[in-house]
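User: Predict the full complex structure for these chains.
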Amino acid sequence: MKLKTKLLAFAAGAMMALSGPAMAQDWAPDGPLTIQIGFGAGGSTDTMGRILGKVMADNTGWNIIVENKPGGGGVAMFTGLSQMPPNGQTIGMGVSIPVLVQLVQRGDQLPFDTTSFDYLGTIAKAELALVASKDAPFDDLDGMIAYAKKQGGLPLATMAPPQVLMMKATSRVKDAEFNLVTADGGAEVMKLILGGQVLAGFGSGEHVPYLESGDMKVIASANQSRLSYAPEVKTFVESGVNAFVDPVFFLAMTGGTDPAAVAAISAAMAEAVKSDEIAEIVKNAVQGAPINMGPEGTQQMMTDGLAAAEVLFAE
Amino acid sequence: MVDFATILAGFSDAFSLYNLMFVLLGVVLGQFVGAVPGIGPIMAMAIAIPFTFGLDPLPAIAFLVGVNKGGLVGGAVPAVLMNTPGTPDAAATALDGYPLARQGKPLKATKMALFSSVTGDTFSDIVLITISAPLAILALRMGPIEIVALMIFAFSILAGLVGTSLTKGIIAAALGLLVASIGTDPENFTPRLIFGFWDLFNGLPLPSVAIGLLAISEILHRLSLAHGNVRAAITVADTGNPDDRRVTWIEYWTCRYTMMRGALIGTVLGALPGIGSTAAAFMSYSMTKAGSKDPKSFGKGNLHGIAAAESANSAVVGANLIPLLTLGIPGSVGAALIISAFMIHGMQPGPLLFENQGRLVYGLFGAMLMANFLNLWVGQLGLRFWIKVVSAPESIIFSSALLLCFVGVSMATNGLFGVSIMLIFAVLGYVMASFGYSLVIFIIAFFLGPRFEKSIAQSLSLTNGDLTQVFKSPVAAALLILSVASFIWFLRKNVQDDAE
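Assistant: Here is the predicted structure of the two-chain assembly.
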């Protein structure tokens, strides 16, 4: 297996050397192209990745296989990707924040950093909100903090380490206690809120139907900016807690991949992200519009994001 | 509330020839991938989802539901015929299904599995269609504390499966829990026992453990019994008695309470996200065995054993859609994939789904009922085919099964890492079984361990570590008292059975 890939890489290299600099439009994958998704089957990332793969395949005629490689919020997949030979056949799809937080917390144990990849672009940005049941005795973050102080603790559901760190930052700054319950994803957070076991929790879109039905209300935006669907609600930063997370769905390949391959694949991806199919699935998955920052923009986003995460999450 | 006209419109949408074709296609595909060791309906659904994009929503979702339901029926086939279950829940079916098949009655065993599977599934679908809203509210009330109590209760019932040696049972359970603790801890996200393998970050992959421990170890066992003679993997004895090839109405009818209990257990556990069909199948089996007048006949080909396991694990699937459709909460990976199909077609499961998409939801219900009938029909035809297949010589059957397990696990876990894990567990399973440790107890502990740990962590956080608060929840307190009672009862029963 390894020998074969090495031989293939060598053959590809030799061919490139002979043919001179290849143009992006000339490039086509030598065999099937694999998109590895850093999360399990059935979530937002998986659904968007599978549709993206299909649209790219329809547009280009390439053979594209989509696989799930869950583990550590994408860290398992990116670890594998960083160790592969850069043969232009494997693409990784993940979410920025979980990777950045792992890099800040245990970067010395990980075999990669943000410079280990050639970035292709982004698909969408998740809008992360802190929400509560409509009956909760508070309407905004300040009210929630005041209530937590009065009660000596407030049960609150999170679904990932960055949110835990945000709430711990809130505890530090505002001197309020929270009973943080870790849930398996946004759907379980909604269950805990609706069941009354917690008073508030984080949602990345799962809560929107409950906003429409009037069962829930938005307490704060966990993004750097306010939420597109609730522009009147303040962010954590505006309430005096200097913490935010901006999760972005992005794609990358092993660093050192043939630039012609990166250019061709990111062009194919950019074309796909403009399609109606992607617009529809992004709307349904994250309640927003597709956003493609392009290869340089994505690289910049990861570099800046790491610096921001170091400030926010290094205790 | 959805008005009657919408309901009728939905059902009439479903019962068109076009939809019927997609459901049929799904059921056939599902039964096939379910029966082939190592593949399974979940992978088939994940691969099929993007291709449903071009379809209308109803045939697309009907197709996926067909795959999911067909997979359940198919999953029992290798468990019964070869004792090589591909999923932990089918292991419960193998307990009595395989001995019956060995007695030369493979058709009777698989047909009982088929009939009880369809019965349990239809029951939970009817519950879903009629009273999903109140059940969903009940499920919401089951918070982390109640879930911990419920799981302790489930464990206490599973004590009935321990068998002759309590010590060995406890060791098997402890090993299962230990292996389940590999991976990220649910509270602080610290990697545990991963020894530098980031692939283990999310824990050991379930397909590797289940197929290695249950299927490959059994194949190893059979290989160790082979002495160079060519035998058929299974023999269909020609006794001249047609009743050995079918399930008579009387036999079906005498299992009615068993199936009702299984369907009820499956429906209740299915309505609660995350517990799943494995616990349901084994709880139902254990309760049926304990309640039977002849507990010694279990494990030797008792039809009640098959009926208990299959009715319960199939009932989970319909009930999984209760939290999904009413609250948007998936109860299993299969349900999560159906959510992503909803998202692809522009629908968000949740409180407004019945209001906004009532016609489609009732169309889906119609498709589910249709899938149950088709399951029965396709199953009747398919079983004969599978029995023909496994009548081939053992050397061919087991080498093909082995190959399919390798391929399936490497597909499900995306690579050879999962295959290595599978082989480790195959050897472990072979050794454990040889020394009389229960693989079933191990796999249940492994399967329920992470959920149990997470619920405990959530409960501790909610109660600030004060465990006495458990008794503030009447449901949790009642379940804990029941657990103690059932644990003592099962232990005494075990001792009595030994004494006899």
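Chain B touches chain A through 53 residues (CB under 8 Å).
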